[in-house]
Write a structure and sequence with these properties.
Blueprint (H helix, E strand, L loop, with lengths): L2 H18 L10 H14 L1 H5 L1 E5 L3 E8 L23 E8 L1 E10 H10 L2 H23 L15 H4 L3 E9 L2 H10 L12 E4 L1 H12 L4 H7 L1 E3 L2 E3 L1 E2 L2 E5 L13 E7 L4 E6 L3 E7 L4 E14 L6 E7 L2
Parallel strand pairs: 1-12, 5-15, 6-10
Antiparallel strand pairs: 2-3, 4-14, 6-11, 7-8, 9-10, 11-15, 12-14, 13-14
Helix pairs in contact: 1-4, 2-5
């Protein structure tokens, strides 16, 4: 047998043994591995790093909502109970996370694997590379998902841009500035502004740059500092103390001219991302081709817990 083919088979057998350490029960990640995988996904994603991530034990999960939408205090009289008409009850409803299936297939040849196998770091290499790519792609559909999309990947479910429909502000085709952020603040129902400093303006990278430029044009440093905010002890730009956050996967090709983006204003914890805990990583090998085949599959979904607590600006120029 030719020496090269023998070496290839040896490498692939080592790779298969190393990859088998990641697997149990035919490819299902055990709870500790799944939890680590989820942590890495969350860490690499801007949206998931801010949102409420819901590990799901089954493909569907209901998120309970409870709120008092109107006044509950009444003028009282000593020794007299409130009438039936004056009593209050909370609004109870549910949001269902219905996880959709996504798959990825990766093929690595022996040249790619050699160094990792020799250093014994294949487990870390595989986990890091795949979780980085999966996290990026998850963020894409979490933001841009649209069941009407011609792209089967994005058509799995509606993302946070499509779902935000109750409080919409048309920016009129201008670049991001404080007037747009002010209008978003005004569009938000006041009952949701109690914890305003927990909220974020989320937009595209170029829109955040445009807004930053409007601040550098200002002549008064004191005025600029009033627009800023601090997140994790790091200075960031903002409006009335609410940070403006750049999300790399926000689109910049919307509108008739394919040169506009959106801004979403909400408490990021209002964004619930459900990830089915049964994450599956399976491997196989093609000895003839000299490749190791890795297939990862997982299910996830996203919903706003309270969609009316979201304001969205459309038609923000970035081109």
């Amino acid at each position: 047998m030719p020496q090269g083919l023998t070496d290839n088979r040896s490498i692939l057998q080592k790779a298969d043994l190393a990859l088998s350490d990641l697997l149990t029960d035919g490819g299902l990640l055990v709870p500790e591995q799944a939890q680590k995988f989820l942590r890495i996904l969350i860490k690499k994603s801007v949206i998931m790093g801010m949102s409420t991530v819901e590990p799901m034990k089954s493909p569907k999960k209901e998120v309970d909502k409870i709120r008092f939408a109107s006044r509950i205090l009444r003028a009282g009289q000593s020794g007299q109970a409130l009438t039936a008409a004056e009593r209050s009850k909370p609004d109870l409803s549910k949001v269902e996370l219905d996880s959709k299936l996504f798959k990825a297939e990766v093929r690595l040849n022996n040249e790619v694997l050699e160094d990792s196998i020799e250093r014994g770091n294949l487990r870390n290499t595989v986990m890091q590379l795949m979780t980085q790519a999966v996290s990026r792609d998850m963020e894409d559909v979490l933001v841009n998902g649209d069941t009407a999309s011609a792209d089967p990947f994005l058509a799995q479910f509606d993302g946070i841009l499509k779902q935000a429909a109750s409080n919409v502000v048309n920016a009129g085709g201008v670049r991001l500035n404080k007037s747009i952020l002010r209008d978003l603040l005004r569009a938000m129902p006041t009952e949701f502004l109690v914890n305003k400093l927990d909220m974020r303006y989320m937009t595209s990278v170029d829109a955040e740059i445009d807004y930053r430029d409007t601040l550098t044009d200002r002549a008064t440093p004191g005025g600029d500092s009033a627009l800023g905010a601090f997140v994790n002890n790091e200075a960031t730009i903002g409006y009335t103390g609410v940070p403006v956050v750049a999300v790399p996967l926000f689109p910049e090709n919307l509108g008739g001219g394919a040169n506009t983006t959106n801004v979403v204003f909400c408490d990021p914890k209002n964004i619930h991302v459900g990830i089915h805990r049964e994450i599956r990583l399976e491997t196989d090998k093609d000895i003839s081709a000299g490749e190791v085949i890795m297939v990862i599959s997982l299910r996830f979904d996203t919903k706003y817990a309270e969609e009316t607590a979201v304001a969205k600006a459309t038609n923000v120029l970035v081109g």
